[in-house]
Amino acid sequence: MKRATLALALILLLLASCIEPEQAAEDRPAPYKQSLLPAFQRDIASLGEIPRYHIAVSLDADALTLNGRQQVSYTNEEGSKLGEIYFRLYPNLPQFGGQMEVQRAAIDGRDTPFSYEAGNTALKLPLTPSLLPDESLQIELDFTVQIPHAADDESHLFGLSQGILSLPNFYPLLAVHEAAGWHLDVAPEFSDAVFSEVALYEVRITAPLDMVVITSGLALEAQPNPDSTQTVYCAGGPMRDFSLIMSREFQLASTTAYGTTVNSYYLPSDKSGGQAVLQHAAAALRAYSDAFGPYPFAEFDVVEAPLGKKGMEYPGLILIGTDLYRTRAEGREFLVVHEVGHQWWYSMVGSDAVNHPWLDEGLTEYSTYFYYLMIHSRAAADELVERRWLIPYQVAVNKGLDAITDQPSAAFSEENYEYIVYAKGALFFHALHQTVGDQIYQDIMRNYLQQYRYGIATPADFLRLAETVSGQELDPIYREWVLTAR
């Protein structure tokens, strides 16, 4: 990830490591490649014409507004013609509390009409003529975002709170198109909201000079401007989305894990928590790399955020709530390890977190079993199964809150969402593990990562792969834990 700075000396240090313009001209993917470890830099070429975003945003820290312009290179790889294209405007979700407006849209340099749908969380651009398979176009969007300011004692994913400016999904993000059409689902406030495909990103962020700027991707240059601002140039990919968080107060501690630089950003009063979070994150990156397959990116950031006792995942970047640094240290390790797990199950292997939320959440939950097994002991891992999933799920059953696991997030209530999606989902993977054994379970996970890396998997895809790798009929445990409610 990137570091913009509190001091000119650090800016100059970043400038010393930036790429030369002629290098980028000679090798078009070069900026994106630098965000990957050398062993994975060829992955970009293997993905074909995935979308490429070029985004420039400027922060007015006093007015709490972002002014942005983006260009997206898009190729129709859907196998059928497209009569329209959609972008998601996630800041307009009720749980985000922001206000995003698009002032102008253009396709291949020509202004085009647009309209809002799905409660102003989707932008529709009609295509005339339709975009045929393998045809490409350039889309330009000018946009503004009004950023909410939350009270310091509130948990807040998007906006300013506790001196931290958290701006996930701050730009118009291409919607996912599948055979049934465009995904425009609006998720309930208690669940994850974003479903996206991988893309390549070049992003320029202009912000006050004293802001520490942290994003998905890698900072390649930070340029001070005459007006006491800085422009930070970042690149990254293949990534499912691109997020931004900044503060004037962040301090930094770093280490490495299998060649990846791991950064912990925290508020000055939370240094001990910031150091602990750093060690947990590095240990989790190593454990999951050993268990499932290597982490591909050159940097990974874990950042203190105004999320209370919760966390949130983004590509190459996770947020950990301030309570975990202060009053809830007993839950810190598990939450960090869970969010790191999403770098495998959500970031590398994508799935529809709105319509099949259990697939990434249940798998990420259960992946922590292997962390506890490898870092602590089998007894600690088995205790996790009992305390974290079996007991909570039995509570749900006793309360009459059990439900079919494979349902859209909107089919759950806030009361039973975590019981079923997280706990019961994890218990399916535990049952699978017990059925096939340690080695075959890890073979399933490694094959799942290899086959669907940078792609999107469905529950049916996972079941089919698990049966192929194990050579076993797994429908009985799948029906019990995924398709049945007690």
Task: Explain what this protein looks like in three dimensions.
This protein is α+β, with helices and mostly antiparallel strands and 486 residues long. It has three domains: 8-247, Sandwich (Immunoglobulin-like); 251-330, 2-Layer Sandwich (Zincin-like); 357-482, Orthogonal Bundle (Neutral Protease, domain 2), CATH 1.10.390.10. Helix content is 31%, strand content 29%. It contains twelve helices and 23 strands. The protein has helices at residues 8-16, 21-26, 30-33, 43-46, 271-291, 332-341, 357-375, 378-398, 417-436, 438-452, 459-470, 475-482, and strands spanning 52-60, 65-75, 82-88, 99-107, 110-111, 115-117, 122-131, 136-146, 159-161, 164-168, 173-174, 177-178, 181-182, 199-208, 212-215, 218-224, 229-239, 243-247, 251-257, 260-266, 299-305, 311-314, 317-321. Strands 5-4-8-2-1-14-17-16 form an eight-stranded mixed β-sheet. The protein has a five-stranded mixed β-sheet with strand order 19-20-21-23-22, with helices on one face. A four-stranded antiparallel β-sheet has the order 6-7-3-11, with no helix packed on it. Helix 9 (417-436) crosses helix 10. It is globular and about 60 Å long.
What's the gist of this structure?
This protein is of the alpha+beta class and 486 residues long. The protein is built from twelve helices and 23 strands.
